[in-house]
Amino acid sequence: MEGNGIQHRTVRANGINIHLAEKGEGPIILFLHGFPEFWYSWRHQLHSFASLGYRAVAPDLRGYGDSDAPADVDSYTYFHVVGDLIGVLDAIGADKVFVVGHDWGALIAWNLCLFRPDRVKALVNLSVAFSPRTATNKPVKTFRALYGDEFYVCRFQEPGAIETDFAEIGIKKVLKYILTSLPAGPFYLSEGKALREEIDIPITLPSWLSEDDLQYYVTQYEKTGFTGGLNYYRDWDSSWELIAPWMESKVEVPAKFIVGDLDLTNNTPGFNEYMNFDVMKKYVPFLEAVVVMKGVGHFVQEEKSVEINQYIYDFFQKF
Question: For the whole model, what pTM was predicted?
Answer without folding.
Answer: 0.97
